[in-house]
Amino acid sequence: MMLGAPMSDRSNLEDTNHTPLSRVCFTVLDLETTGGAPPEHKITEIAAYHIENLEITNEFSTLVNPERSIPPFITNLTGIDAAMTGDMPPSREILPDLLDFIGTGVVVAHNSQFDRRFLDNELHLAGLPRLKNSDLCTGRLARRILPWLPSKSLGNLAAFFGVEIPDRHRAAADALATGKLLLVFFDYLKERGITSLEEVLLFQFGEYDYQE
């Protein structure tokens, strides 16, 4: 299915030249939360990695006090409980450092709408502007590159490509796996002539294609 890119992404592309992927700083982000959607649910853990010169480099990782209860099924899934988060700072105290870490680079996540929705909500509550960074989703890329694969979940994709996730559903492990998958996808697209940031951003929405 062809999806339309948000206006912010499209406008970012209009005035840019073709930027080699090796010259782009990507920030691969993963959030763990108390449940499925804000504002009812809150962030419990944040992790991010930089990808620079197509290599995974710096890490940002912290637990977050959600300032609400963590449902038992979430604790069973992630291993994160109130005892782990109770003495941690709330998101409003962490977000400035996270924003500094993200900078102006491209933000990457698996099924990124989920992470961006939570992050935008927390930024709003903290009185901070929402992210305007370009958005790249490894879930969208997987749906375009591997349409025949039954599940495009992070766990299934990692198993398919032999990427280990030793601590699944913890933010640092999931963000690192997402970064590794992104580099796999970049190699695949490079072999098909897609080598620039602008092409990849359009490709994820079905607005740019390659020839087999």
Topology:
Elements: H1 7-14, E1 26-33, E2 43-52, E3 55-63, H2 72-78, H3 82-85, H4 91-102, E4 106-109, H5 112-125, E5 135-137, H6 138-145, H7 154-161, H8 171-190, H9 197-203
Parallel strand pairs: 1-4, 4-5
Antiparallel strand pairs: 1-2, 2-3
Helix pairs in contact: 6-8, 7-8
Keywords for this entry:
212 residues, alpha/beta, Nucleotidyltransferase, domain 5
How would you characterize the overall build of this protein?
- There is one protein chain.
- This protein is of the alpha/beta class and 212 residues long.
- Helix content is 42%, strand content 16%.
- The longest helix has 20 residues, at 171-190.
- It has nine helices and five strands.
- A five-stranded mixed sheet has the order 3-2-1-4-5, with helices on both faces.
- The chain has one domain: Nucleotidyltransferase, domain 5 (2-Layer Sandwich).
